[in-house]
Model the fold of this input.
Amino acid sequence: MANVRLKGKAAVITGAATGIGRASALRFGREGAQLVLADIQNAEGEAVVQAIAQAGGTACFVRADVGRRADSERMIDVCVERYGRLDILFCNAGITLPKLLPHSVDDEINRVLDVNVKGPLYAARRAIPIMLGQAEGGVILFTASKTGLVAQTDSPVYCASKGAVVLLAKALALDYAARGIRVNALCPGIIDTPMLRRFADAMPDPAAAWAQYAAAQPLGRLGTPEECAAAALWLVSPEASFVTGVALPVDGGFTAM
Done:
């Protein structure tokens, strides 16, 4: 491995089986990180582990539903048990709810808040004491969204959950800035992920929906998981050692409009 910006670092990545999580796992692995990959998709998660191993990296898979406190805590514990430390927590897993509020039932609202808000809270709560006990501290990164910065129509519960994640990152950044823990939020725009493709495929005219997504971006195209992974890598790496409390848009200029 030529690039080793994360050599010797132990990292947990949630939602690591597909999309931004998968791209980040592969990138972090190439950079020398020892990884715990958490997801509810077993086969896809194990496939990412194998891809990292074939490239000379180190990773293991833990099936975890981050909306469950026990699972969010267990993945942190697995990292410490396996690698002896926890340097990076990347809470990337998330779900959406494209519904107007009067059409959103309690179970749907609870699930979005469990995965998108409580999951990062539980994981960070478990991780922070471990990082405080390490001489080098640690880094926490949350995947929020452009909708954590600017609202969009027809997704109020999702917007609320991602806005919460942005403020969680800022609050934790202030709480631990002087104690060796950096905390930031990654705010992707419209990214070409399996989740987005499933959403588009459910539309009456998937091709038209896909074209509309691209046209809505100032850069005229969708982003890629790899572009988000590159930003995530920078935020968790020593190169961003003076960066904390940031909500970084990776959105093709969308939030500049």
Observations:
- The helical segments are 19-30, 42-54, 69-83, 106-132, 156-176, 194-201, 206-215, 225-236.
- The chain has one domain: 10-191+224-251.
- Residues 10-191+224-251 form a domain with the Rossmann fold fold (CATH 3.40.50.720).
- The first helix runs from residue 19 to 30.
